[in-house]
Fold these 2 entries.
Entry 1:
Amino acid sequence: MLLALTVLQTPGAFGWGNEGHEYVNRVAAEHIPAEMPKFLRHAVAEITYLGPEPDRWRSASEFALKNAQEPDHFIDLERVAWLDPLPPGRYEFYRKLYEKRAATTDHPDDYLPERVGLQPYITMEVYGRLKAAFREYRHLRETHKPTGPVEQAIIFYAGWLGHYVADGSQPLHTTIHYNGWVGPNPNGYTTEHGIHAKFETTYVGQNITAKDFAKFVHAPERLADPFSDYVAYLRESNRHVEKVYAIEKASGFNGKGSPEAFDFTTHRLAAGSQMLLNLWYTAWIESATNPEVPQSTGPGLP
Ligand SMILES: [Zn+2]
């Protein structure tokens, strides 16, 4: 019984399905500008392959891995409406959530970090790895040393990052309504556990190709503040949650789907590719600046 409950409460849906994740990475990779390293522009196939990579880490046969990284794929923004802005580091976020949980009598476990989700934190952590690798690449080039190994690391980080950014453009990865409407339901949206996979996997796989949204993606823009810009992107995605339910209610994701479903989905996928491209570009630009900023002395640091 307990096991059954645990299974039911674990978000089982994967986020855009295989095709959607490949498309988001591919379209972003095809838009890498000439001012970024050539090896990366030539890594479209590798970056595309890596789009679904973190979904390959969700098998029960690798329990520790599955357990540790499952919350990376989503964030239930409604549960943290009281926490704006979100703190920039994951442990500060944990602390706020545990304080909230301790002060809550009605379903306090809803505030456990693994229930709320850690989407923006894993994204910024992988972004940080990418930026550090770009910095290393610049240093090796400047000192005329081989760059092959760091190029492989950069391609991996860039592709890995794409997974979470794509999850973030899927509105159902930002909400408590991730797979069936919960709570008050005046519009009579579906409460069945099925809308998530129907939208992101079945509908996308059968009706959308990368070409359908590549034209909506433009040259990258440097993000002024990657974390807050990324959180704003998640909040924007969350504003589209009800639209997914309205389209589903109108049978828009059935079979060949409706024109509205196509327009909506292609623009969501494009938003994912655009944010990914912007993050890659910003990491590249920022990797040129001197990282020797004073270390913060948080708890546990000397
Ligand atoms: Zn995912």
Note: The chain has a mean pLDDT of 93.
Entry 2:
Amino acid sequence: MRTRTIVSLAAAALLLTGQASAAPAGGAGSPGIGDPYYPTYGNGGYDVTHYDIRLKYQPATDRLEGTATLLATATQDLTRFDLDFALDVTGVLVDGRPAAFAATGEQELEVTPAAPIPQGRRTTVVVRYAGTPSAVARYGFTAWLRTPDGGVAAGEPEAAWWWFPSNDHPADKATFDVSVLVPDGTQAISNGDLVSQSSRAGWTRWNWRQDKPQATYLATLAVGRFDITRSTSPGGIPVLNAYSRDLGADDGAARASVERTGELADWLTGRLGPYPFGSVGGYVPNVRTTGYALETQTRVFYSPRMFSRGSNTSVVVHELAHQWFGDAVSVGRWSDIWLNEGFATYLQWLWSEHEDEGTVRELADWVYASHPADDPFWTVLPGDPGAQHQFDAAVYDRGALALHALRTEVGDDAFFRILRGWPAEHRYGNATVADFRRYAELVSGRPLGDLLRTWLFTPSKPALGAVAADPAVRPAAPREPRSWAAILGARQH
Ligand SMILES: [Zn+2]
């Protein structure tokens, strides 16, 4: 998403890298976690284990105020450390004592505790803050989505800065408690389980809990007038969905798609192994300025525009597949994005075949034939696309082709053992493309370096042989599979 934004981000990040190297060494945590795509994202020197976010939000004015309590462990001696945040901070406590703080750069909150924190110490950081998220721009954009009835935080890779201070990089996952006070008649939606809700003096508090590790970009908040539905999938997964009461003409198609979440999560469980979280669902807020969906953990964000041409179960399959690929197992660095998008797209192909809307083979043929050798599509490396191309079509479509090439190479039995075993192998953690290669080689017993280099790291159209077990039966000019438009609809994200 936001390709133009990412171009400017990459440029700004380069400038900031120069500044970062000038920061005092020894004792100060670095202002970036060390991701080459986004050098200022995340921070060094500590690891967050839990976020407790307690907010009050007024939909009429978009005023958000609150307190975030972070439990963190210092990974080095720290005289100072950064958080990533964009709203106005009014106070910071570190282990109960007031700390000095300063907003620097685009989204850095520099915190200097009263006393240095020794390596290994478990530390509690309390940040008090307030602001109008929709009025705050960083790197020229605002990730907070204002709606007529409230606001929404759902964006990749940035969203957290507009509603809670964090170590904003998927490499630092943590559990979350999110408690939001909103006027009676308004709902607050977040990740995980709805633990409780209570009303007093005209305000309702909504308490949500995500008890499995979650990347910061997968944390979501939506406040608005929602209709909440609850059920349990036939396989036993608790389902909670939410729909804006103002979806208008998109209401029916949105519900006809997202109400199938339980059924589709069960179908995915059959292919990928146990669903990794305690509940599942999606929400469709009344946002009109964006057209994407995002795999926010356990509670997928869908723009209503996803359903403006009718129901789309393919996008639901894509976002739910991310619960295994992206959410349970998160990228180690943003360059590992193929581990998210290539896999979620391949599950859409499998769903298409299951629904008799085009076989995996037909989809692979279609993608391969749709891009002639001189198409710039083939110059983007799914295995390391660069920040500017992180969400290019090639990451999704060539990424899925790469998986089909792997399947052709190792056979169905080993391939589906890999697909199922990978999320279990790294559940609730992080992994890289190199980790995947090692795992796939272990399970299949075959060297896969050449194959993965060809499909993920070579800037040209690979030879046909790697996708086709029998090129002789390949149609000369593949026809567009019936599912193709729906699959394209999930291109972001
Ligand atoms: Zn995706």
Note: The chain has a mean pLDDT of 93.
